[in-house]
Amino acid sequence: MQTILDKLSDPIDISIPLSGKRDNPIAWYIDQPRIEPVKMDDFVGSVASGKSSTNFNNIFFNPHAHGTHTECLGHITEDFFSVNQSLKKYFFSCLLISIKPDKIKEDGVITAGLLKEKIKKNRAEAIVIRTLPNDAEKKCRNYSHTNPPYLTEEAATLLRNMGFEHLLIDLPSVDKEKDEGKLLAHKSFWNVKDVHHVNEDARFYSTITEFVYVPDDVEDGEYLLNLQIASFENDAAPSKPVLYKLT
Question: How far is 198 from 151, CA to CA, in rounded Å?
């Protein structure tokens, strides 16, 4: 028991916190999130204002665009599916790998070939992909109109076939920013063949987590993953993935 507690006392938080500041990461062409006091008549929900005994803030944000979030297949389907209902376990065996995307024309691409070089045999339920170079600007970058790297459909299929149920990546999306709505990597990883009538063998309990950040001093290898989400009945929710060393 003490050995388990010792491991859990050294968490590696790979989430990016949401703030109302200009350095909050942004994607998908919207403005930064806002965190501001409630204002009603003479009331201002801020202790510093002298008009409230408590801090009482509204938060305006989009989970897909403003930081670390976890999504279920409801992100791409006509029917509603909630990530809060899809994610029923919170601890998973996990593999962390670092990959430098291939340059294909103007795109940075994570291919099936690159994944095969890194994953010889899978024993994990979840995978975290850290892209290289791994600059700290990932935590504050505006990704809109920048064509970030992405996974090919074949790469997502490989991860699905290797048994990974949960995919985490340090990019705003597993798909190309402007792909005409094809979303091939999302569809392949979740095995969604028709977004209008979801097939029975779709992966209803698999998740994709985007916008993580893994510091350079965290080595590639096997970890225990604790994947916690805010309890939103929505296709996606803010999340806090935490890694624990196994050795």
Answer: 22
Measuring CA to CA, which residue among 160, 167, 185 is closest to residue 175? 185
Owning domain of residue 237: 63-245
Per-residue DSSP letter, 67: S
Residue type, position 7, single letter: K
Q: What is the pLDDT of residues 127-145, one digit of tens each?
A: 999 999 999 999 999 999 9
Which of the 8 DSSP states describes residue 235? S
Spatial CA neighbour of 242 closest among 208, 204, 207, 213: 213
**56 within some domain:** no
* In contact, 77 and 71? CB cutoff 8 Å: no
Residue with tokens 């938060």: 59
pLDDT in tens, 76-88: 999 999 999 999 9
Buried b (16+ CB within 10 A) or exposed e, 224-244: bbbbbbeeeebbbbbbbbbbb
CB of 74 closer than 8 Å to CB of 80: yes
Task: State the CATH number of the domain containing residue 125.
Answer: 3.50.30.50
